[in-house]
Write a structure and sequence with these properties.
Largest sheet: 2 strands, antiparallel
Order of helices and strands: HHHHHHHEEHHHHHH
Number of helices: 13
Helix content: over 70%
Strand order of the largest sheet: 1-2
Distance between the termini: 93 Å
Length: 270
């Protein structure tokens, strides 16, 4: 009798394991098949509509019904909501993308948190994981450390921001290159600590790369006035206003959707 019971248990466990294995096999679609799904439901469907339309989302949903583990489909669902400033809705979808492909989308989510959603502490956590796992790579034309420093700047932790900007720019300098936005924000980290001369030094470096950068000129004019150089400050402020009217401001691709940190809303100054 004991032998019969034992055999029944073994058979039952074996059957359960077989069912689990079948589920894994049936829901696992190879990369080639996933590419076909992406081509059909993104390139030949979603991309034929406005990204803000119901039809766009319907195409992606149809693709996800075929395979809900395709991270790219989740990222494509999230993107229009971020651009429409519906951050919480978009974050639900980008979380799914990170779940299925963290190497591809964790830094993207961190970028969204930093520039779009402005949840800086959460952005820092994501970027620190990226740093640990992948090194100081780039996302949206800037390093992970740049975004971490920018997040600290927005949290009023100016000394931390200054230190990280300095290290990151020094590393870039080894390749004889530094982005004008890096130099601008490095200057701002000094500016916020009333290190006027140090701020002006970095602002001048940014202006060497982007001479009509109105936001830099604005902050530099204030730093000059704090040093008692009122005539220079006034002249530079007027140049900043003219350059702002001509559109010389932060020129990042996503600046059309979001106001960047420290970007001047000039309508209040005209």
């Amino acid at each position: 009798m004991k032998k019969i019971v034992f055999l029944l248990i073994v058979i039952s466990v074996t059957n359960c394991n077989s069912q689990d294995n079948k589920k894994i096999v049936n829901t696992s679609i190879d990369k080639e098949q996933q590419e076909k799904i992406i081509e059909k439901y993104v390139y030949n469907c979603a991309d034929t509509y406005s990204m803000f339309s119901l039809e766009y989302q319907a195409c992606l949903d149809a693709g996800l019904k075929k395979d809900s583990t395709i991270a790219y489909l989740w990222q494509q669902k999230a993107m229009p909501y971020f651009k429409a400033r519906k951050y919480e809705v978009g974050m639900e979808f980008i979380d799914k993308a990170v779940k299925y492909d963290p190497k591809a989308y964790l830094d993207y989510r961190a970028f969204i948190k930093c520039i779009f959603a402005k949840t800086y502490r959460s952005a820092i956590k994501d970027f620190e994981i990226c740093l640990k796992n992948y090194g100081n790579r780039y996302v949206m034309d800037h390093t992970y450390k740049f975004h971490i420093a920018l997040s600290y700047l927005q949290l009023n932790e100016f000394e931390k921001a200054e230190k990280i900007f300095a290290e990151d720019i020094e590393n870039q300098a080894e390749n004889n290159w530094a982005h004008h936005l890096d130099l601008f924000y490095y200057g701002i980290s000094k500016y916020e600590q009333q290190k006027w001369e140090g701020a002006i030094t970095e602002f001048d470096k940014a202006l060497e790369i982007y001479p009509k950068f109105s936001d830099v000129q604005y902050y530099k004019s204030i730093a000059l006035s704090r040093l008692g150089k009122f005539e220079k400050a006034k002249n530079l402020y007027e140049k900043a206003r003219e350059n702002a009217k001509a559109g010389y401001t932060i020129n990042e691709d996503n600046a059309i959707y979001e106001t960047y940190p420290c970007q001047i809303t000039w309508q209040w100054h005209f």
